Amino acid sequence: MKFRVPSSEFRVGHCRPTLHSPAFSLIECLSYIGLFALFIVLVMGVFYRAREASDGLRRSADDVTRALHAGERWREDVRTATAPPLVVTESGQTWFAIPHGTNTTAYTHFGNTLWRQETTNQTWQPVLARVKFSQMDADARAHVTAWRWEVELQLKDPRKQTRPLFTFLAVAPKETKP
How far apart are CA 20 and CA 176, in angstroms? Predict the structure, then answer.
């Protein structure tokens, strides 16, 4: 049996385009590339915003950690005092003096740093940097005298609405009356 193909339908090396061609045009290709580039730009913008937010969160967590360590050190100094602490104001500078036997541990806020002096004639060591406000006061209670330290850190980002404000309480030893 012989098969005969009409010459008008099939020729070697010749293909007629139809409406259902699987190919696509150059304009379609360029539009896909443009959409892909737009998608990449949007994704990178979201990525960098998330990265900035993550860095800001890490810096805030570091500030909270620094403040908590300084507060716990202050509380330990107040709890181990051998006599009630004193607030001393001299020449416009205020110190918080904590007696420890024959020595005195002192805290002061100067510039934007909280400083600590372990004993009377030692050098001052920075305890907490970027401090906006610091105040240590007696907080009289019914049966004990507690001490309150309020400290506010400086804002790194002016767009933040939450102030980094911390309050620490410590109970000093009872005052002995002769």
Answer: 101
Q: Ranked by mean pLDDT, which of 36-50, 141-155, 159-173 comes out on top?
A: 36-50
Taking CA atoms, 108 is separated from 5, 16, 20, 81, 168, in Å, by 104, 91, 84, 17, 16
Buried residues in 3-13 as b, exposed as e (16+ CB within 10 A): eeeeeeeeeee
Residues 6+ apart with CB under 8 A from 22: none
90-110: per-residue pLDDT in tens? 888 898 999 988 899 999 999
**Would you list the domain boundaries of the chain?**
34-171
- Residue 12 DSSP symbol: T
20, two tokens: 């259902």
- The helix/strand/coil state of 26 is helix
Banded pLDDT at 178 (limits 50, 70, 90): very low
For 63, how many CA atoms within 13 A lie in the half-sphere containing its CB? 21
This prediction has a pTM of 0.70
